[in-house]
Amino acid sequence: MPELKCLYIVPTPIGNLEDITPRALRVLEAVILIACEDTRHSRRLLDHYHIHSPTTSYHEHNKVSKVGVILSALERGDVALISDAGMPGISDPGYELIRAALEAGAQVEALPGPNAAITALAASGLSAGGFIFLGFPPRKAGKLREFFEGCALRTETLILYESPNRLVETLQAAFETLGDRQAAVALELTKMFEEIRRGTLTELSGYYQGTPPRGEVTIIIAGNRTSPCTP
Asked: Is residue 211 helix, strand or coil?
C-alpha cells in the first residue's frame, strides 16, 4: 500500500472571514483536496480568498462512503479537513475521518484557530481555570435531566452547544438540576449580530422565553462551588 500523505485539520472562521491564519490559507491552497462539511457553505470562504483546490463533501450522512475516497486521495497528496465553522472533529463527524486516517498510517496535523466553545468561555466572565466541553446535550427531557445530574458535582465550568429552538428548555433543565447558577449564552460569535448575555440560569431562560434566538448557540454554566473540595 502506498505511503499516505498528511491530513491537515484546518479550523475555519466561526463568523468573521478575517479570523483565519495565513498558514491555514497556505495549506488550503496547497492540498490536492479539501474535505468540507458542506461544499456550498465552504465555497464562500474559499472564493473570498481565491482558493481553487478541489473540494468534496464529508458530513454525517455520507461519512461511511466518503472515508475511502479521502484515504485514496491521501495516497496522492495532502488533504485538508474543514467544517462549516471552527475546529473540525469537535462535535462533528470529522472525528471518524481523523481516526481512519491515523489507522491507515497517514500523518495528521492540526492547525490552531477559531473555536466557538473557547471563544464563548473567554468572554463569559466565568472561571476558565478548569472547564469541560460537553458538546450537544440529549434532546429528550428525561435524558437531558440525567445529563445535567451527571454534571451536578463537577467543579469545572460547563460548556455546551445547543440549537436556538431548544435553548430555553435546556436552560430550564439546567436550573432544575443544578440550581440557579451563573451562566452565559453566546450567540452568533464574531458575526454582525453577536450577543453574549450573562446572568443566572433563570434570568437567561426568562430573557429568551418566547421567540427563540437566531444563530449558533454556546452555553457556559458555572461549576459546582458548594463542594468542600472546591479550590
From this structure: coil
pLDDT digits (tens, 9 = 90+) for 94-104: 999 999 999 99
Domain boundaries, the chain: 6-110, 116-221
Rounded CA separation 118/124 (Å): 10
Fold entry, domain 6-110: Cobalt-precorrin-4 Transmethylase; domain 1 (3.40.1010)
pLDDT digits (tens, 9 = 90+) for 109-125: 999 999 999 999 999 99
Torsion, Cα of 52, 96, 15, 119 (10° steps)? -140
Which pTM does this prediction carry?
Answer: 0.89
* Topology, domain 116-221: 3.30.950
Measured distance CA(89)–CA(202) in Å, rounded = 32
The closest alpha carbon to 148, from 224, 213, 230, belongs to: 224
Contacts of 44-48 with CB under 8 Å at 24 or more apart are: 44/17, 45/12, 45/13, 45/17, 45/20, 48/17
SS3 content of the chain, % helix, strand, coil (to 5): 35, 20, 45
